[in-house]
């Protein structure tokens, strides 16, 4: 990640989330307030202390937290901006592909098979005479849908199981750890070839299901570790000492402090899931025609690479850029959420 | 008696062996009374407090014996959800390091208000108003604005006062303060202790003050219980202990306080190291470090003798308390 020149934007924008930096302006008021002869009864008739000179008046400093600090970092990070622009563009064309591609991806003309670019068909034609541009645009929909759905599934399943295992520990934890070990031992491609070859459905759901099945152990390990770390914090014990229930401790005190690593890993994983869908489709066990997917197109075009390289390069290029964008986003988010890098 | 701990025994089962952290501790606190529990690190004072609160990590911790009577009920016989309802409402705890005891991602208002949401079922808006009131109560200036701030935006003393406010929120009958001022600098220490003492008087709460700082105790406590190797070795009203300790360990502690009138002399230190709790010495646990130790101390565990000849109730777990008291 490129170094960011330090720009003092707002007052007191000194970085450092948990540090004492933010406390400094207030520290002076401590002595004043305590020295005043105090009767707690009058204290309820506030405000009397704030009239002191130097006591805090309406603070110009916005409350800072891990998230607001991270957001400020991200907004200035070119990697984040670039990847976000690409992702927004991808999401828009997956939702409304017809805005930039007027034709249908399934309308093909064999007479034009393997022809190069022509007016109105900038990317040329593939082996079946279909318009490569249209198919590449429509392929984004599958990729984004598979990536987003699989990531959501993995993140929800993995973090719930991992968090429960980390929080309650004991038998439940050992059991889950062994189960994740088993899933880690399944080779992804081999598993995909075996499991998906028996599926006949032509929708994206079997692929998503397969990715979730193999992907959740990764997130669950991260979530488990993050929960165990967060759980050892004194404020968790303090909350317990003040009568908070398990669910409240887990949801309100641990989860917000443990969610950052899960977000980071999930974002990076999104890119790899898109690549995995293309891989599976290439191998013929993911999506099948007439679905439109970059993997299918790459697979179909690869025998003709010497005659019609454009039919291979465009969907491959789109796939590479998409995966890169999500991985860059994940990277930027990781940097922003890591206070040690500030 | 508000809280009575009787012969409490706690051990931790670790990979290396069984750590006997608490070996038959008994103490009691009345409403409106302050008991200071004194001892070095590892003497079992915090573990006892955690057992009373019910926040001991189990496993590895295990309560192997004794009872904890709170308002006449044995806490160890209650169900977990009953104990949870007591925590915060009837008994509360203040921790040593207020920064790490406050959740960094929630505003102090949210955390203070949580007490009312959890125990009283208040709406968030009412809870917020209560939070402001509490912050006023512990004298945090501009409470209305600051209630929206995060813990790291407060100074150390203020954070500890917020912790005190959280503990006091529901006006519990008992407060356990586990080294509440250790992380603060000396001037702020005094302010926080004064605040705690004053609020305790006002609400007539029982206060168990855990500390290793004899200086903090003198002004605030009514009684002192000194712990060593998981036992109470001496308990007495605060002034008696300062005047004439009845246990050599207490004596050693008092002599190791730096004093202005002893300037230039070498500071006394109790020789030796605290015992390994996996292998507590036979007989009196203190005998390897004790200047008065004799053969009896190496073989017989001293019971908690009643110290006679004073007008107050005192106890000492030393075979030779008479020699210590008068020597």
From TrEMBL, chain A:
Transmembrane segments: 79-97, 144-172, 184-214, 258-276, 312-333
Chain intervals for the UniProt region annotation (Disordered): 1-64
Entry keyword set: Cell membrane, Membrane, Transmembrane, Transmembrane helix, Transport
SUPFAM superfamilies: MetI-like (SSF161098)
Topology of this chain in the membrane: Multi-pass membrane protein
Record's compositionally biased regions (Gly residues): 13-22
Domain of life: Bacteria
Subcellular location: Cell membrane
Entries under InterPro entries matching the protein: BP-dependent_transpt_permease, MetI-like, MetI-like_sf, OppC_N
Gene3D superfamilies in the record: MetI-like
Gene Ontology CC terms, in alphabetical order: plasma membrane
Coiled coil regions, renumbered to chain: none
Pfam families: BPD_transp_1 (PF00528), OppC_N (PF12911)
Biological process according to GO: transmembrane transport
Domain ABC transmembrane type-1: 140-330
Assigned protein family: Belongs to the binding-protein-dependent transport system permease family.
Name of this chain's protein: Peptide ABC transporter permease
Organism: Streptomyces caeruleatus
From TrEMBL, chain B:
Compartment(s) of residence: Cell membrane
Lipid bilayer topology: Peripheral membrane protein
Gene3D superfamilies attached to this UniProt entry: P-loop containing nucleotide triphosphate hydrolases
UniProt GO molecular function: ATP binding; ATP hydrolysis activity
Main location: membrane
Residue ranges annotated for the ABC transporter domain, each copy included: 5-254
Gene Ontology process terms (BP): peptide transport
UniProt keyword list: ATP-binding, Cell membrane, Membrane, Nucleotide-binding, Transport
Superkingdom field: Bacteria
PANTHER family (UniProt xref): DIPEPTIDE TRANSPORT ATP-BINDING PROTEIN DPPD, OLIGOPEPTIDE TRANSPORT ATP-BINDING PROTEIN APPD
Similarity field: Belongs to the ABC transporter superfamily.
Name assigned to this protein: Methionine ABC transporter ATP-binding protein
């Amino acid at each position: 990640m490129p170094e960011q020149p330090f720009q003092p934007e707002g007052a007191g924008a000194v970085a450092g989330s948990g540090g004492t930096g933010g406390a400094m302006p207030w520290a002076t008021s401590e002595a004043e307030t305590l020295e005043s002869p105090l009767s707690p009864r009058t204290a309820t008739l506030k405000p009397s202390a704030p009239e002191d000179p130097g006591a805090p008046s309406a603070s110009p400093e916005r409350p800072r937290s891990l998230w607001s600090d991270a957001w400020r970092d991200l907004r200035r990070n070119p990697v984040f901006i670039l990847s976000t622009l690409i992702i927004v563009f991808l999401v828009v064309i997956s939702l409304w592909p017809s805005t930039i591609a007027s034709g249908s991806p399934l309308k093909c003309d064999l007479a034009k098979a393997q022809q190069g670019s022509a007016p109105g068909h900038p990317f040329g034609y593939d082996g079946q005479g279909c318009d490569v541009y249209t198919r590449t645009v429509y392929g984004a929909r599958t990729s984004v849908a598979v990536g987003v759905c699989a990531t959501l599934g993995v993140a929800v399943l993995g973090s719930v199981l991992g968090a429960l295992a980390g929080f309650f520990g004991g038998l439940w934890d050992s059991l889950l750890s062994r189960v994740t070990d088993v899933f880690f031992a399944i080779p992804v491609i081999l598993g995909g070839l075996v499991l998906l070859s028996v599926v006949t459905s032509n929708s994206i759901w079997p692929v998503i299901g397969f990715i979730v099945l193999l992907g959740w152990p990764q997130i669950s390990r991260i979530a488990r570790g993050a929960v165990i770390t967060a759980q050892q914090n004194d404020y968790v014990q303090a909350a317990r000492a003040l009568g908070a229930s398990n669910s409240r401790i887990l949801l309100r005190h641990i989860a917000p402090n443990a969610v950052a690593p899960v977000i980071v890993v999930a974002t990076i994983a999104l890119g790899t899931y898109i690549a995995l869908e293309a891989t599976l489709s290439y191998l013929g066990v993911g999506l099948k025609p007439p679905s439109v997917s970059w993997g299918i197109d790459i697979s179909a075009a690869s025998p003709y690479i010497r005659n019609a390289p454009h039919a291979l390069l465009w969907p491959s290029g789109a796939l590479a850029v998409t995966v890169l964008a999500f991985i860059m986003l994940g990277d930027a988010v990781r940097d922003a959420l890591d206070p040690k890098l500030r | 008696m508000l809280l009575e701990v009787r012969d409490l025994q706690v051990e931790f089962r670790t990979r290396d062996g069984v750590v006997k952290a608490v070996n038959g501790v008994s103490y009691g606190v009345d409403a409106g009374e302050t008991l200071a529990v004194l001892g070095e690190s590892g003497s079992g004072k915090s573990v006892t407090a955690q057992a009373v609160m019910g926040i001991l990590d189990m496993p590895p911790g295990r309560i192997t014996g004794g009872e904890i009577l709170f308002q006449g009920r044995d806490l160890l016989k209650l169900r977990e959800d009953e104990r949870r309802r007591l925590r915060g409402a009837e008994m509360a705890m203040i921790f040593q390091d207020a920064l790490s005891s406050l959740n960094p991602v929630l505003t102090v208002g949210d955390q203070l208000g949580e007490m009312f949401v959890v125990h009283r079922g208040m709406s968030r808006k009412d809870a917020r108003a209560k939070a402001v009131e509490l912050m006023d109560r512990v004298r945090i200036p501009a409470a209305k604005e600051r209630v929206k701030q995060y813990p790291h935006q407060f100074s150390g003393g203020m954070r500890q006062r917020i912790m005190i406010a959280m503990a006091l929120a529901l006006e519990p009958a008992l407060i356990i303060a586990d080294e509440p001022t250790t992380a603060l600098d000396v001037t702020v220490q005094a302010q926080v202790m004064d605040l705690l003492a004053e609020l305790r008087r006002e609400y007539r709460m029982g206060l168990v003050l855990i500390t290793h700082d004899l200086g903090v105790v003198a002004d605030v406590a009514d009684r002192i219980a000194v712990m060593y190797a998981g036992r109470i070795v001496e308990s007495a009203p605060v002034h008696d202990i300062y005047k004439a300790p009845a246990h050599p360990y207490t004596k050693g502690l008092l002599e190791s306080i730096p004093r202005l009138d002893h300037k230039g002399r070498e500071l006394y230190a109790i020789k030796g190291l605290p015992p390994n709790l996996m292998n507590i010495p036979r007989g009196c646990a203190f005998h390897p470090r004790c200047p008065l130790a004799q053969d009896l101390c190496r073989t017989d565990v001293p019971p908690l003798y009643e110290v006679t000849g004073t007008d107050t109730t005192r106890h000492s777990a030393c075979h030779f308390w008479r020699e210590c008291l008068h020597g």
